[in-house]
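User: Round two. Same drill as before: sequence, then structure, for each protein.

Assistant: Same drill it is. First protein:
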Amino acid sequence: MRPFALSVLFAVLSVSLPATVRADVPAIPAARLQALLESEFQFQSGHFRRSFGYYQSLPADQLSAEELLRGSQLATVLGESAWLATLEGAPALADATQVDLIRQRFDTALRADQAAAAQQAWRTLLRHSDERAVFAARAAVDANTVAHQPALNTALTGYADRQDLTTAERFELFQYAFQWRLDPVADRLQRGLPPKSTEAALAVTIRECLDGTAEACKRRLQALDPLDLTEWQGRSMLVLAQKNGDATQQMRWLEALPQDSGIYYQRIVLLSRAMDDARARTLMAQLRKDTALDDFQRALLQGSLSELIKDWPASEAFYREALLAGVPTTASIRLAVVLFRQGRREAAFAQLQAVAADAGLSDEIRRDALQTEIQFHRVLRSDEKDADTLNAVYRRGLGYWPHANPLRYQYAMRLFGQGRVDAAMAELQTILRSAPADADALNAYGFTLAKELDRPRAAFKPITQAFLLAPEQPEILDSYGYVLYRLGRHQEALAPLQKAWQLTPSAVTAGHLGQVFLRLGNRQQANDYLEKGLKLDASEAELLALQEQLR
């Protein structure tokens, strides 16, 4: 088990033990304690829905602070917004002093559009003695920016108007005001920073990097010494370096931050974009010596780094070591990739199939294993030996997840490519029975009716539905215009086809536009689109047919 998860389990249980152990906490029924234990074990096994059942079964006012935290984590992952809304006013949440629970108050207030409560929680986080609170505040803001920007703007503006802001608070708020283009607020906050302070210099750097040139940003970042900054200030500069696309500056700021598994992984990813053998050796040595990493984290990171430097046997050994920890992880898939790299194809396929079949793992990991198996077959061009090999993989996947519509759609497109139109249409019908508003399935179904089966009247309804659901999608615009053309509505067909061409020029759309202009008597425009289309794909059947008609 992961140490983090164990620590949370102990924290949850510590408030649930009988009064004989902790006299300040009322005893709870043994049945509830057993249910809590079962919930945690389900969590450790990756069965989040089952784990969440415990928290759903109890009123919010009966949950401890630690239980609220675990329940909130699960609800966020599972999208249980209705349950999160029931936490409003829960005593344990209102009285929380822990960083994670204060963040939960912040989240809850924003979702309820309670700007004043959000402002107070935000302030509590930024003034918390634990520096992790700053990162918790940022995580809460990032998680809510898209859906709750108005509430955030109101909270920020009210917070910025306070007269007792610390320099650190003022700088943190400046960053958001500037990012959200609340210019008067940003200007007021920046003016309030002490002129010779580090925060004032950082504010100027932020403006230069976001509004100035890349070179000016680089100079500003180079002028700063990471050792002069706090961790959260350093992370702000890292974000600027990332936005500026400067790999050297990114690595510089990453290396200056306190190293944990997340920072180490970012360094490995950055090395993958610009390989540096000396940095890779240095990083490997750091990983070996870092006692703050547990055995699982170290093995996983060393496996990734060994894979990057193409030391396949070492990478295999590290991934196997990581898997011994029993933690559900993508290391099981990376192991298969490393086996494949070593030419051990049967072992690689067996590994992926075992992962995909393991109901104890999360669906995300299992589906990644199936998709990796599909990619391996494509690399090996398995179709050239047996066209049904890859089809069998899709069928196996759909046996595990019969309602996985994206996978079924992928399989249907493959069947179309094999000329198995009836089988492909049957798969699309299966999708549409469970998801009648699936725009991609409607589009593929309707276009096939019109084109392959020569039934444009039958195609009009599904294509129109697809168009109403996704009126900006080029493929659907093309299909809609094509069906109108096939129904003799040539003038109406022009608008969607021309929009499809503007969004994503393709040989197919060029052919359809050429056919429409030819029917409208405009041979010049038909020839123009013929020439444009042939430059994109000289073998497109629509264009070749149009070429014959124009001779």
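Second protein:
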Amino acid sequence: MAPPQGQMRPGRQLAVLGFIFVVLYLLVFFSGGASGGWKDRLEPRLGLDLIGGTRMTLEATNTVDGKPPTSANLEEARQIIENRVNAYGVAEAEVVTEGNRNIVISLPGQNRDLTDVGEAAELRFRKVLKATDGSGAAAAPAPTASATPAPSGSATPAPSGSATPKPSGSASPKVTSSPSAGGQGGMAPTPSASAAAPTPSATPSAAAPSPSASAEPVPQSVEQQRKAIEQKVGAAAWAAASGLQAPADLTADPSLADKLKPFGTLSPQEVAVLPVGMQFNVPTITCAQLDDRPAASIKDENQQAVACESGAKYLLDKAKVLGTDVKNASAQLDQTSSWVVSLNFTGKGQEKWTALTREAFNNEGQACDQTALGQDGKCRVAVVLDNEIVSSPEIQGVLTGDSQITGSFDNKSANALASQLRYGALPVTFEPQESQNVTATLGDSHLKAGLLAAGIGMLLVIIYSFFYYRLLGSVIFLSLVLSALLVFGALVVLGRSIGFTLTLAGIAGMIVSLGVAADSFVIYFERLKDEIREGRSPRSAVPRAWVRARRTIISANAITLMSAVVLYIVSVGAVKGFAFALGLATVLDLVVVFLFRHPIMTMFARTRAFLSPRVSGLGRALPARSAEAGTGRNPRVKEA
């Protein structure tokens, strides 16, 4: 027989709760970040105060023009610092901005010196001396797919695209003098390696020095590292790499390829200490290894460097122009309504830029190797930010005034490139404010202490609930267990999806949430006793008590949730973790209240045990009602 209209069906709420559990734990075991055995999949992401590691807080000072850093400056700095930290090979590093000046770096499980990652990033303008497609073959320029911009600086409209080099058949951006500058020509980025037609490199370039004959003294520590690498790859591989004067044609000498294979197993940190010529000439040293090197490895503007762009390796000259020589860079629309990036240099910077373009502009190709020429047969200049080549334009003339980067830009790509150039010109400097190293042993003791505190808190609540509420205590126990399982599953999934890390402060937030959950039990059960004392039967008292207690429970949890949200917004550091964990546990407690506690109480109200004062835990509420009925007086029965 169907239940009366308006009467709840507890099975439906319990089914919804079961569905939530199934979906949540399917995500725990089979989501994209799940790996390893089932134990590994059940591990939440822990903060460094629980597993040890390093945390450093950097405060941004004013930019070089004396103005406070903007949010855009801080975000670009955060991305650059994150790239530098990732270059250490650190897993799950976290770099976040706090407030309008601070950047916090957290490396769980790692103790490292992070003093160098906060150094101001600057652009380096380096002439491309030589290029290879990454497999040892020389990179040939791709055919031009769009008209060359006129010397006046106006650009022919091109399809909208990225500022990075395009594959064969797509238009390439160029840099020209602005119309008012009266300069010559422009420069266009090289095509990507995928567009290159490989040809063997027959003769070594004069610009590619032998790695075995370095003119600069090498620090003893670096020399020791190189000896360790020589032992790792073997004497034969080291000798073969040292003798290379140009990227080898491996198809012509398969035995050489076998000898050089051990270099492909080197870490980015090991590759960083190799001589520049070896980094470029050894074909088994990949762009992936070069891209992941620490940023400081190519920071010296007085040394040649190797960097990659779209899979192609470039041997780069000394940096003749720095990012601080750029006065301003902005995205603009030219006369043809095409997006361009305008470059303005400082007084000395313009002199350096003119000298660099004059040096690179050589129609006979003598200023750079044949492999480094662009699609118009002229030398190129790479714009390098840390390890990343932002652009590698082809120099088409001597630029004596303001310059423009023209080509296949849209609004977004032009502003992105301009932003990178501005950041190189106006670097944000940082001062370390706090540095903390937490050992794994200390983190492990913190974790045990936090879990012990949480366990003791839950145990005390359960003991009190069974002592005071008896049968109803089982409802409290099961509710807390379900809440804990929901919170745990949510922590695992959130750690994979948004990178949330559980810290000691987060555990404290969950312990506090136990008190909120206990309050909701007391409100509900005491309201139930009041309804029974007023003469209602237990079966009718349960829904009536729920309706009245529900408002108070929702109000109390809403206040806690709002407090957690406000605290999360205005706080920094570990307090954010506390607020997030408190808010999460509060929301999930509400889920359990509506989908488990009320339905299970409705089911209990239909049992005989619920009518026994000793078993139900309703105390004197039921005996008082029975005594009133035994005197012959009519009890006040108010059925719902």
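The first helix runs from residue 10 to 30.

User: Perfect.
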